[in-house]
Amino acid sequence: MDVGMGSARRQKGGRSTARRSAAPIRGTGITLLLLGFALLLALWLGPLVPLSAVSFSAHMILHLSIVSLAAPLIALGIALAWPNRLPPLFGLGAAIGASLFDMFVVWIWHAPVLHESAATTRAIFVLQQLSFLAAGLFVWTSALSGVTRRERAIGSLTLIGTFLHMTMLGVLLGVTPRLLYSPSVCIGAFGVSGLEDQWLGGVLMATVGGLPYLVAALVLAGLALSENAASERA
Asked: 122-144 and 211-233 helices cross at what angle (nearest 10)?
């Protein structure tokens, strides 16, 4: 009986130690989650919203801040705070689906007619912004919630696919020789012409906007490869 009681105490102590070690990680996750939501509020209540109605580059800063900063903060916060509460999003089909959904949302909202509608109609603008957030959360949650080597490798592919389509659209917008949008939504809030405003938005998407996806993809790939090497040595 003493042996059984000792074993039970050790198991209970092990669980207590695990809970204590997990507490700082969960606290970090909750902090990141709150930072993500605070950033969203700052973006949607700040000057970028009215500026984005008349400046394409301001619109792009708002868009990229949502999908490349706020969304990963929220997704990583969820993954750290509640690591076992998310649905299984780690299959290759889900990875492809997340990237394709994000591509559809981003490209369709940058079609001239829809971009101009969002710039002039508040309800359409709200729908646009919520669509960007949903697509970003789908991609980042799928990528960052993996815990196994396979899940992290698939998450890396998800982010690489998203990086590629965003870079392609940014390059297209940054090199086109003519103004694709109405001059009324490309006035240029930073002392540039309408076409230069469009170019600046494209350059931001092709460079700054895609960088977080690429960096996170490389980190996940590195983790997957290091785990593979460790398992082979074992």
From this structure: 20
Give the residue extent of every domain in the chain: 2-233
pTM: 0.84
Taking alpha carbons only, the member of 81, 101, 208, 189 closest to residue 144 is 81
Residue 186 DSSP code: -
Per-residue pLDDT of the chain (234 residues; tens, 9 = 90+): 554 545 545 444 444 444 454 567 888 989 999 999 999 999 999 999 999 999 999 999 999 999 999 999 999 998 888 876 555 555 677 788 889 999 999 999 999 999 999 999 999 999 999 999 999 999 999 888 777 888 888 899 999 999 999 999 999 999 999 999 999 899 877 778 999 999 999 999 999 999 999 999 999 999 988 865 555 555
| Cα–Cα distance for residue pair 39/195, rounded to 1 Å | 29
